[in-house]
Inverse folding.
């Protein structure tokens, strides 16, 4: 019988193979998961690297919903490989067990951190760690992961979204407006006309009464924007800032004019330009402005 064969074999690898056969028979014929587990563990004791044993034990633990045992099997798997991708995948699976079945977000995060340490450029695992950090409100860790994702992303469109998210965390969760301003400026370096970022940075600059940096931001946004409505609106806003905040009517007239050059019917720019031309007795230009309006 198989028991006799096991007892007669001295080689550890062969004993492990025979014990694995016994474990599979216990599963298939006797439906005895407890006995099968004992036999698989005995096989691992004989040879931890015996082919197929650890895989069979993991599958059995999963079917039996023995999550703590499954974590132990996966941790053993980590020790048996030098391949970083295999290590990372095992730690990722450990994390999923902790979060999905054992209800331990902290242990899940710890496992994901070890997975990232094994493969720092794995986008999928970085994404999982970012979601776990957000769920656990670990915002400094989330910023680090988003920074890494921003470094790895191949497109400016994806990079600006990630950099905007980093700045938003600095502003809202970490309550660091200086870091938020720096972060939004980094995002605009990737896409100067990204509307959510322009809007956020404009709000912060207004709160801080930093008019020159705001004008520079809106000027770059207007130059980069493809949409005529946005370009015109940004030029009109720049003009209002020059007029009302910096007391520079000539610069205001220039940008009101640029707004109308982009979008001739822009109402804010038309009213602003008409007002300034009248205030400064530039009547010929005022007449021409109204004549162009009639022709629209």
């Amino acid at each position: 019988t198989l028991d006799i064969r096991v007892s007669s074999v001295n080689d550890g690898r062969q004993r492990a193979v025979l014990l694995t056969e016994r474990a599979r028979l216990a599963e298939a014929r006797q439906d005895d998961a407890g006995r099968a587990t004992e036999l698989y563990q005995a096989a691992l004791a004989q040879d931890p690297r015996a082919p197929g044993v650890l895989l069979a034990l993991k599958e059995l633990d999963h079917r039996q919903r023995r999550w703590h045992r499954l974590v132990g099997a996966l941790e053993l798997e980590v020790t048996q490989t030098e391949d970083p991708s295999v290590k990372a995948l095992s730690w990722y699976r450990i994390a999923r067990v902790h979060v999905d079945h054992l209800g331990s977000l902290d242990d899940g995060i710890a496992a994901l951190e070890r997975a990232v340490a094994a493969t720092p450029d794995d986008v999928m695992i970085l994404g999982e760690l970012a979601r776990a950090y957000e769920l656990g409100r670990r915002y400094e860790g989330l910023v680090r992961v988003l920074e890494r994702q921003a470094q790895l992303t191949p497109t400016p469109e994806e990079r600006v979204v990630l950099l905007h998210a980093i700045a938003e965390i600095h502003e809202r969760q970490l309550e660091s407006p200086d870091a938020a301003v720096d972060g939004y400026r980094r995002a605009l370096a990737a896409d100067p006309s990204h509307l959510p970022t322009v809007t956020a940075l404009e709000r912060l600059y207004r709160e801080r009464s930093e008019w020159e940096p705001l004008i520079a931001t809106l000027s770059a946004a207007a130059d980069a924007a493809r949409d005529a409505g946005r370009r015109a609106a940004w030029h009109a806003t720049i003009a209002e800032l020059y007029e009302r905040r910096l007391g520079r009517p000539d610069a205001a007239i220039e940008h009101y004019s640029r707004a109308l050059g982009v979008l001739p019917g822009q109402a804010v720019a038309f009213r602003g330009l008409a007002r300034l031309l009248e205030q400064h007795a530039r009547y010929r230009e005022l007449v021409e402005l109204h004549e162009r309006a009639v022709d629209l």
User: Anything to note?
Assistant: The chain has a mean pLDDT of 92. The chain is about 80% helix and 0% strand. The first helix runs from residue 2 to 8.
